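Tip: read the tokens left to right.
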């Protein structure tokens, strides 16, 4: 090996040994092999030599380059190993430390009730259907046989949206989940069995009303469904949901534009204590009836071939009754103290109570 290359090798060995971290190591690498490095410079000078001299010098330079590269890489490996050793030497894992507290999330009572509803009606063969919060006037009112001047259509109750596009249909925030059943009937042929939980909106705000609240509605359409099936279905649901196998129930004749005949359902409770069951008092809990033939026809279902029942109830209300929650307003205030008190563990799934 020529003198200058032996010297370069000796110098590089010395500067590499002096480089104590990867940053210093990289400076050495650049100084030797970089674009303006010592060896690179020598390679550039080859062009000025005669062909024989160039062949000899070129071979020496290539050997030197291989050797220098090997030296430099070996130092990098050593430095990296030393850095890892130092890190492993400094870090300690204390396996005796108590675990950091993991804040456990809680299920909101509304969500919990919806899970229970899904479990109970699911066991009875109902599917869950959902739909948009913004509907047009026809799906929310017209299809349901709610006349133009019905109180539920009055501006004070309904949130109207600014006029939409070309179709000229007035859009509303749905005042009940019924438009989802309308969509279901229009989209799929009977038989139908769906329950529809979801957000609903009415321009009403006081201690017992929120402008946004939740409803559960159900719809069953088949050839021969009767009021008897409706009663059996609601009896099974209410007993299962409240977990009271002998829950007293009373069916009262009523009126809705979308069902005929219609009936409201009361459950037994104690007005003084708020306890559900045989307390001697009655509490109205839901509305129901046989789907009006005009509603079936509006939704593309032939009322001479099919009939069915429908029902609707407020989710907040049945949740408050079941769990003794006295005030509606904190449902939407996102106060963690309230949720810690009334929330449910995500590890305890909704189960079917007695009755189904
Ligand atoms: C109540 C009463 C009810 C319905 C909702 C319904 C839906 C269609 C057709 C026929 Cl698409 N009926 N829904 C029927 C009876 C009562 O709700 O008090 N809700 C809170």
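Filled-in amino acids:
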């Amino acid at each position: 090996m020529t003198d200058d290359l032996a010297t370069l090798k000796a110098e590089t060995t010395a500067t590499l040994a002096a480089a104590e971290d990867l940053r210093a190591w990289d400076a050495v690498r650049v100084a030797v092999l970089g674009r303006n490095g010592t060896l690179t410079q020598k390679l550039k000078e080859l062009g000025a030599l005669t062909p024989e001299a160039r062949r000899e010098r070129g071979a020496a330079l290539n050997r030197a380059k291989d050797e220098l590269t090997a030296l430099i890489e070996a130092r990098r490996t050593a430095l990296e190993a030393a850095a890892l050793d130092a890190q492993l030497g400094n870090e300690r894992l204390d396996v005796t430390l108590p675990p950091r507290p993991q804040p456990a999330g809680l299920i909101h009572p509304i969500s919990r009730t919806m899970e229970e509803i899904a479990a109970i009606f699911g066991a009875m063969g109902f599917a869950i259907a959902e739909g948009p919060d913004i509907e047009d006037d026809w799906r929310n009112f017209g299809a349901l046989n709610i006349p133009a001047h019905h109180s539920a259509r009055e501006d004070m109750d309904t949130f109207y949206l600014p006029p939409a596009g070309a179709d000229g249909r007035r859009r509303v925030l749905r005042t009940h989940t019924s438009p989802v059943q309308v969509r279901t009937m229009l989209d799929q042929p009977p038989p139908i069995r769906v329950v529809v939980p979801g957000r609903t909106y009415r321009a009403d705000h006081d201690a017992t009303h929120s402008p946004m609240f939740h409803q559960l509605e159900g719809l069953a359409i088949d050839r021969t469904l009767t009021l008897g099936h409706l009663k059996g279905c609601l009896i099974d649901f209410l007993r299962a949901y409240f977990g009271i196998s002998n829950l007293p129930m009373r069916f009262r004749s009523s009126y809705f534009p979308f069902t005929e005949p219609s009936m409201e359902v009361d459950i037994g409770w104690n007005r003084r204590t708020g306890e559900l069951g045989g307390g001697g008092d009655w509490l109205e809990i839901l509305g129901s009836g046989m789907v009006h033939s005009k509603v079936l026809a509006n939704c593309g279902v032939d009322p001479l071939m099919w009939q069915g029942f429908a029902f609707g109830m407020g989710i907040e209300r049945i949740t408050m009754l079941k769990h003794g929650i006295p005030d509606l307003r904190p449902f939407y205030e996102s106060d963690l103290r309230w949720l810690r008190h009334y929330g449910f563990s995500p590890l305890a799934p909704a189960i079917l109570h007695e009755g189904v």
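Residues 51-90 form the longest helix (40 residues). Residues 144, 178, 181-182, 215, 217, 219, 256, 258-259, 286-289, 291, 295, 310-314 surround 2NL (CB under 6 Å).
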